[in-house]
């Protein structure tokens, strides 16, 4: 990094992390170098800063040395990309309110980016869908962007990693802070195979307001955003709104009507989001998009050919799978994609509870149904 | 005139009784009454009770120096059961009343001020200890006579008061020995019936399996799903107690002062509140008494809102679940109470209670859910055999008119299954492990292949593996089958722990 402009952006980034609000917008048109070069009090007055922000500005100014900071971070393997730098993602720069600087651990791949986001408390079906989409996208050389949270986020990253593709995790804290802790292993693998990205400098804690803010980066980095499963008031919906503001495509995976886990994503569909009803169609649409921007081989060297893994598609199930004993087939007809308890299955099919239970376990072993953490059963997309 | 008189008595120690000799010396000197031989406060207070009871019964308390020694002197004596032997000893030693027949008689009983007798704890254990100690007759309060007579092999005389006891000992008649123990009518049916619960076939089936094999169960579900209602109906489907079991259970209940003067009839069902102390659950106190886990011996211990129990409190359950008894160590002594229980627990899946519910969104963060489920320690979760999810039913499902099976029919199946287990390995299936487990739960052909696949695909651990086999054995017993077939194994697989639970 060189240049006074880069230093100014880096400084602005540190300041934003302290104040919480976005100063980039207020700068509107002004030269960013002013944050470092104008006298602090004068700048604060011009920018109409709050007293707290002004104080933070003065404190940060003291002893600020961009070059030393960058060198220190480089020792830790952290790269700083400011808006003045070459490597700063062009798509993100074009989005509203781009972060002044990004801290990156790993390698930001070239080519298409698609974000997969959704509920942290996704259903089994949601997790499987996210994982399958991640795998398909990565196999086609598309980089999967997500937030490294639990549920859909983790599944999306897992899917991409399983296909050997690249994936980028955008964090709401410093990139050396593992949050949630249970994702520790996933963090390590994402870093090795893609990149961890954050607008907060290393060591910054995961404060609640930082997560909605990082969602604009997820949206900004991506060509398209897919909401896999989101209840009302989900962070994934914030990502979708940012994507719309940035002029990116928003897709949503349809869920069963009325189910609270999918109300948010279904609402997006009602509002006109792309309906992700057929995986090949979706893949074609998003990879075409990528082609316009000059794709080719994926960064991992995988050809962008047909998918290697099974296609996740909820609508291509054989009506009654052949080769199942009559009793199990009968019970299977009582299970659909919405997870239900054994009692509901027994009620739908009229089969005795004992037989329902043994059939469900057989179907689970054969891969036709899945049991979630709450002990409910749902159909699996592909046995 | 005889100045030292010995009366044989008994003292409760844990659930067993030990012989205690009450020696009374009445001699010249300054009138007084003292008790030696490690008595506790209640025994010390016997001085006043005995003095008043003797005069109110129409006898004269000697105006001499009275010393009572309770032997052996190193054993701590507690309670008021020595009142009657002391009173008889004093009357005999002072020569006021001729008592000729004290040699082979055991005496226990608490006196009231008017000379009447109150019941004692542990009558059955005392009768047993008296018989083993070579005594031929036992005199105790009327209230305890039936219970004590159940031990057999000893003549049990229930007396109403001090006067009656004295007259009986002087003349040898006036009191009939309590008859040999006999069944008192039909076992009363449980009040709450499974037929009252609509739906919840899955949970009912799981409870049936648990009752048949004595397996420990965790029910997880949102508030209002009926976990407690189901649990309260568990007593109605438990298999009847055998006579040996009834005697054991009665001894524990009697030691806890909880009998109605007869043998305990049906399997205990104890439901302590989650604020219970460690001593309340495991037993203890300065005068040790059995805790809830022992009072549930051979029955069910129901822990509602499982994660709300103190972690330390729950940890004391580890020994009983492993060994079938609790050991309580005091400075003076170490005693153990039997505690072979079926643990029935209910819990919400998360702090707000609605995780996994179909109609109400859960407000908890994944971290909160993890912490909540993590409150139960792994070793304890490892002892649970069946994990059942109890969903909340919609109004339509509740209105469903199909009548549910009454508890009576379920109980018949359970009783037959339990009989088969006892016939095969002389213990319920929950106690199977190691060599016995492999002998009783051999898998053949298809079932073996299925199990191998299940181990792979469902990631069963070594413990989980044994657990599934035990439960499958019970499912097969409920169907009356010799061998574990594919469908039994498959059903048992459903009761395994959901992934991510309780870690």
Q: Write out the strand line-up for the largest beta sheet of chain B, numbering strands in chain order.
A: 11-14-17-10-18
Biggest sheet strand order of chain A reads: 1-2-6-5-4-3-7-8-9
- Find the structural class of chain B using helix and strand composition: alpha/beta
CATH topology of the largest domain in chain A: Rossmann fold
* Rg measurement of chain B, Å: 27 Å
Number of self-contained structural domains of chain A = 3
Provide the residue-averaged pLDDT of chain B.
88
Commentary on this structure:
The complex is a heterodimer of chains A (383) and B (503). In chain A, 53% of the residues are buried. Chain A has a nine-stranded mixed beta sheet, sandwiched between helices. In chain A, strands 10-11 form a two-stranded antiparallel sheet. Chain A is elongated. Chain A has 383 residues and is an alpha/beta fold. Chain A has helices at 4-19, 24-27, 34-37, 40-46, 51-61, 66-75, 90-94, 124-139, 152-162, 184-193, 210-221, 235-245, 263-270, 279-292, 326-332, 342-349, 353-366, and strands at 79-82, 101-106, 113-117, 143-146, 167-170, 195-198, 224-227, 249-252, 274-275, 369-371, 377-379. Chain B has 503 residues and is an alpha/beta fold. Chain B has two domains: 4-171, 2-Layer Sandwich (Ribosomal Protein S5, domain 2), CATH 3.30.230; 194-430, Rossmann fold (3-Layer(aba) Sandwich). Chain B is built from 21 helices and 18 strands. Chain B has helices spanning 41-44, 46-56, 83-94, 123-132, 142-149, 162-171, 201-213, 227-232, 243-255, 278-282, 292-295, 311-315, 318-323, 366-374, 378-381, 395-399, 407-425, 434-440, 445-458, 462-478, 486-494, and strands spanning 4-13, 16-27, 32-36, 65-71, 105-107, 110-111, 117-118, 137-141, 155-159, 217-220, 269-270, 283-284, 289-290, 300-303, 325-329, 334-338, 342-347, 386-389. Chain B has a five-stranded parallel beta sheet with strand order 11-14-17-10-18. In chain B, α7 packs across α20 (462-478), α19 packs parallel to α21 and α20 packs across α21 (486-494). Classes of the chains: A alpha/beta (383), B alpha/beta (503). The interface between A and B is large, with 35 and 44 residues.
């Amino acid at each position: 990094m060189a240049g006074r402009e880069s230093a100014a952006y880096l400084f602005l980034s540190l300041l934003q992390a302290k104040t919480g609000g976005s100063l980039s917008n207020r700068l509107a048109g002004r030269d960013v170098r002013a944050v470092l070069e104008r006298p602090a009090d004068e700048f604060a007055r011009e920018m109409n800063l709050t007293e707290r922000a002004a104080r933070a500005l003065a404190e940060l100014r003291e002893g600020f040395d961009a070059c030393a900071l960058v060198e220190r971070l480089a020792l830790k393997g952290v790269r700083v990309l400011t808006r003045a730098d070459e490597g700063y993602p062009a798509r993100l720069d074009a989005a509203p309110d781009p972060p002044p600087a990004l801290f990156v651990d790993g390698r930001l791949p070239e080519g298409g980016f698609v974000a997969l986001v959704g509920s942290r408390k996704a259903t089994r079906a949601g997790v499987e869908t996210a994982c399958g989409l991640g795998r398909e996208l990565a196999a086609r050389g598309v980089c999967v962007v997500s937030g490294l949270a639990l549920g859909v986020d983790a599944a999306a990253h897992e899917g991409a990693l399983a296909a050997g593709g690249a994936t980028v995790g955008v964090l709401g804290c410093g990139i050396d802070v593992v949050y949630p802790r249970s994702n520790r292993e996933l963090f390590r693998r994402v870093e090795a195979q893609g990149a961890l990205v954050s607008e907060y400098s290393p060591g910054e804690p995961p404060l609640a307001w930082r997560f909605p803010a990082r969602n604009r980066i997820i949206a900004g980095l991506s060509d398209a955003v897919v909401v896999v499963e989101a209840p009302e008031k989900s962070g994934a919906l914030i990502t979708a709104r940012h994507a719309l503001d940035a002029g990116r495509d928003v897709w949503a995976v349809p869920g069963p009507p009325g189910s609270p886990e999918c109300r948010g994503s279904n609402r997006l569909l009602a509002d006109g989001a792309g309906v992700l009803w057929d995986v090949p169609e979706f893949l074609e649409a998003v990879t075409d998009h990528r082609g316009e921007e000059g794709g080719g081989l994926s960064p991992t060297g995988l050809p962008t050919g047909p998918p290697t893994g099974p296609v996740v598609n909820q609508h291509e199930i054989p009506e009654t799978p052949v080769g199942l004993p009559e009793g199990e087939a009968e019970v299977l007809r009582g299970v659909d994609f919405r997870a239900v308890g054994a009692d509901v299955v027994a009620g739908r099919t009229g089969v005795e509870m004992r037989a329902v239970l043994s059939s469900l376990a057989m179907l689970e072993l054969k891969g036709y149904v899945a049991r979630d953490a709450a002990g409910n059963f749902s159909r699996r997309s592909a046995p | 005139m005889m100045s030292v008189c010995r009366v044989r008595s008994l003292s409760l120690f844990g659930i067993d009784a030990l012989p205690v000799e009450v020696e009374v010396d009445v001699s010249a000197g300054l009138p007084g009454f003292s008790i030696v031989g490690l008595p506790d406060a209640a025994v010390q207070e016997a001085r006043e009770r005995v003095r008043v009871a003797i005069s109110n019964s129409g006898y004269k308390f000697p105006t001499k120096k009275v010393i009572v020694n309770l032997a052996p002197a190193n054993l701590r004596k507690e309670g008021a059961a020595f009142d009657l032997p002391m009173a008889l000893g004093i009357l005999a030693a002072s020569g006021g009343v001729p008592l000729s027949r004290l040699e082979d008689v055991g005496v226990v009983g608490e006196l009231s001020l008017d000379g009447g007798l109150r019941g004692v704890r542990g009558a059955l254990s005392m009768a047993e200890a008296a018989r083993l100690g070579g005594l031929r007759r036992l005199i105790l309060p009327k209230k305890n006579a039936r219970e004590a007579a159940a031990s057999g092999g000893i003549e049990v005389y229930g007396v109403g008061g001090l006067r009656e006891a004295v007259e009986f000992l002087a003349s040898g008649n006036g009191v009939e020995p309590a008859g040999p123990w006999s069944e008192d009518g039909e076992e009363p049916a449980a009040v709450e019936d499974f037929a009252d619960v609509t739906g919840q076939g899955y949970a009912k089936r799981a409870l049936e399996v648990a009752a048949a094999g004595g397996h420990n169960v965790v029910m997880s579900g949102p508030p209002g799903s009926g976990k407690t209602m189901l649990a309260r109906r568990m007593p109605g489907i438990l298999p009847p107690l055998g006579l040996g079991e009834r005697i054991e259970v009665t001894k524990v209940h009697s030691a806890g002062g909880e009998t109605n003067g007869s043998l305990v009839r049906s399997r205990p069902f104890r439901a302590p509140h989650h604020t219970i102390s460690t001593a309340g659950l495991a037993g203890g106190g300065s005068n040790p008494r059995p805790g809830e886990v022992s009072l549930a011996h051979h029955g069910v211990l129901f822990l509602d809102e499982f994660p709300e129990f103190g972690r330390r409190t729950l940890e004391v359950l580890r020994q009983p679940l492993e060994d079938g008894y609790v050991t309580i160590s005091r400075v003076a002594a170490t005693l153990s109470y039997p505690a072979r229980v079926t643990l029935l627990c209910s819990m919400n899946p998360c702090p707000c209670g609605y995780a996994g519910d179909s109609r109400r969104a859960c407000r908890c963060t994944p971290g909160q859910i993890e912490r909540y489920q993590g409150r139960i320690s792994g070793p304890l979760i490892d002892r649970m055999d069946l994990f059942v999810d109890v969903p909340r039913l919609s109004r339509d499902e509740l209105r469903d008119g199909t009548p549910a099976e009454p508890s009576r029919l379920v109980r018949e199946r359970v009783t037959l299954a339990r009989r088969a287990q006892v016939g095969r390995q002389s213990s319920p299936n929950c106690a199977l492990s190691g060599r016995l487990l492999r002998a009783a739960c051999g898998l053949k052909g298809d079932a073996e292949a299925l199990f191998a696949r299940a181990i792979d695909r469902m990631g069963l651990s070594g413990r989980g593996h044994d657990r599934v086999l035990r439960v499958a054995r019970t499912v097969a017993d409920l169907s009356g089958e010799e061998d574990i077939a594919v469908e039994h194994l498959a059903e048992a697989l459903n009761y395994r722990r959901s992934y991510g639970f309780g870690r």
